[in-house]
């Protein structure tokens, strides 16, 4: 289901907010763009207007939007346009840490409060004193942390983990979510009181497919950026390529568009971005990926973000083997797929993977890939078709390890 929390925003969330001078923004028009944030559509103009209006206040802002729509850019702009811009801007990705690590990251801890707490540590809230703190993926926080966050929001107070002393902090809170928090409330994963406290001023970033007029300016903007970075003279976009770009549904939103333009600049030749430089799904040669509304874009970085997020969530709050669990699983899958593609010939697979044959051999037994392989056990050498030729006798020779 698409994210759309607009209906839950209520009328005029800015009513009653101070509209004092904009730090660093001069007397600019409220709907004027923000530095480095492009958008000419009605939806983006609304975003610019709300951002500029809310920035000078202390109000908490909740930024909502699918992956890659620019939530982080807006959070940063709010800080930069605020009177706090000379103070620190601290970003915490709440989805990247387990409950206890996140608690200590946010609030700090005192020496000895848990195994591994060898020193007193200042948390990110204290680090954000006089500035702003951006709580990204706020939807990933546990109920216990939500209680603690509510208190900071209401009273500006908290305790470090393992400490009885109450700390006070003066920071402006900006939060982001790529899930509809009302759905999260319904399913019991998010506290309603925290939602209303966070949602003082909501900013909704529309997905790119709902503001197609922004596509062309974004393409030209990134073409210039990556052209300069890579010293390429690609300045124009062929009309047919632009048509394909305009028609794509952009499940990964601006991040996906940015990646495709960068890729075209790097892989393409000549002064013009041609259809052939675009990835197959845009050229109509492969079925487009389904649109993922909930956090997972179809581009590789977004998929990685979502994969890791799901791995952390599935492991549970008490897991202490996240590295092995998540990285191990990805590595195992990579080796299996490459082995399959190399007809299960280890020497070929090792070359494709760019790792030493002995390393691959060790990993095969570590992950017990032979035993479970659908295509039979992996073969050591480059022996052609199974049974046709003897395996390369040198394939298993010890060679220098690359680890
Ligand atoms: N309107 C825009 N103008 C220019 N660049 C943009 C715009 N929106 C997004 N981008 C670029 O797209 C990329 C993704 O943006 P950002 O990280 O802010 O997305 P996000 O909404 O935080 O995504 P996620 O939910 O995956 O964290 C960044 O490189 C950002 O600079
Ligand atoms: Mg983000």
From TrEMBL:
Keyword Transcription regulation among UniProt keywords: yes
Record-level GO BP terms: regulation of DNA-templated transcription
Any one GO molecular function term: sequence-specific DNA binding
UniProt superkingdom: Bacteria
Domain Sigma-54 factor interaction: 37-266
Record-linked Pfam families: AAA_lid_14, HTH_8, Sigma54_activat
InterPro entries: AAA+_ATPase (IPR003593), AAA_lid_NorR (IPR058031), Homeodomain-like_sf (IPR009057), HTH_Fis (IPR002197), P-loop_NTPase (IPR027417), Sigma_54_int (IPR002078), Sigma_54_int_dom_ATP-bd_1 (IPR025662), Sigma_54_int_dom_ATP-bd_2 (IPR025943)
UniProt keyword tRNA-binding present: no
Segments of this protein annotated with the region Disordered: 366-403
Swiss-Prot/TrEMBL keywords: Activator, ATP-binding, DNA-binding, Nucleotide-binding, Transcription, Transcription regulation
Name the UniProt record assigns to this protein: Transcriptional regulatory protein ZraR
Upper classification of the organism: Bacteria, Pseudomonadati, Planctomycetota, Planctomycetia, Isosphaerales
């Amino acid at each position: 289901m698409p994210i759309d929390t607009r209906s839950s925003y209520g009328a005029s969330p800015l009513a009653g907010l101070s509209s004092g001078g904009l730090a660093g923004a001069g007397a600019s028009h409220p709907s004027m763009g923000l530095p480095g944030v492009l958008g000419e559509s009605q939806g983006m103009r609304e975003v610019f207007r709300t951002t500029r209006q809310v920035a000078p206040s202390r109000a908490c802002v909740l930024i909502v939007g699918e992956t890659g729509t620019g939530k982080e850019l807006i959070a940063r702009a709010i800080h930069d346009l605020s009177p706090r811009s000379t103070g620190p801007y601290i970003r915490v990705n709440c989805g990247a840490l387990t409950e206890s690590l996140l608690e200590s990251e946010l609030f700090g801890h005192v020496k000895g409060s848990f195994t591994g707490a060898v020193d007193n540590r200042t948390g990110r809230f204290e680090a954000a004193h006089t500035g702003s703190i951006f709580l990204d993926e706020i939807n990933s926080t546990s109920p216990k942390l939500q209680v603690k966050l509510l208190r900071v929001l209401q009273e500006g107070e908290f305790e470090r983990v393992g400490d009885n002393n109450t700390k006070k902090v003066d920071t402006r809170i900006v939060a982001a979510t790529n899930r509809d928090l009302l759905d999260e409330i319904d399913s019991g994963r998010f506290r309603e009181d925290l939602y209303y406290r966070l949602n003082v001023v909501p900013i909704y970033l529309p997905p790119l497919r709902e503001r197609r007029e922004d596509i062309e300016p974004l393409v030209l903007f990134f073409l210039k950026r990556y052209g300069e970075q890579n010293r390429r003279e690609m300045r124009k976009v062929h009309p047919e390529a632009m048509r394909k770009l305009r028609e794509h549904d952009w499940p990964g939103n601006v991040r996906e568009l940015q990646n495709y333009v960068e890729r075209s600049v790097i892989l393409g030749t000549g002064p013009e971005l041609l259809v052939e430089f675009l990835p197959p799904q845009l050229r109509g040669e492969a079925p487009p990926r389904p649109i993922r509304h909930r956090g997972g874009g179809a581009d590789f970085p977004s998929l990685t973000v979502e994969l890791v997020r799901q791995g952390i969530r599935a492991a549970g709050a008490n897991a202490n083997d996240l590295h092995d669990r998540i990285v191990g699983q990805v590595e195992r899958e990579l080796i299996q797929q490459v082995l399959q593609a190399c007809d299960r010939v280890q020497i070929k697979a090792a070359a494709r993977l760019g790792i030493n044959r002995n390393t691959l051999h060790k990993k095969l037994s570590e992950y017990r890939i032979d035993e479970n392989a659908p295509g039979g056990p992996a073969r050591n050498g480059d022996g052609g078709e199974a049974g046709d030729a003897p395996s390369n006798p040198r394939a298993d020779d010890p060679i220098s390890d690359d680890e």
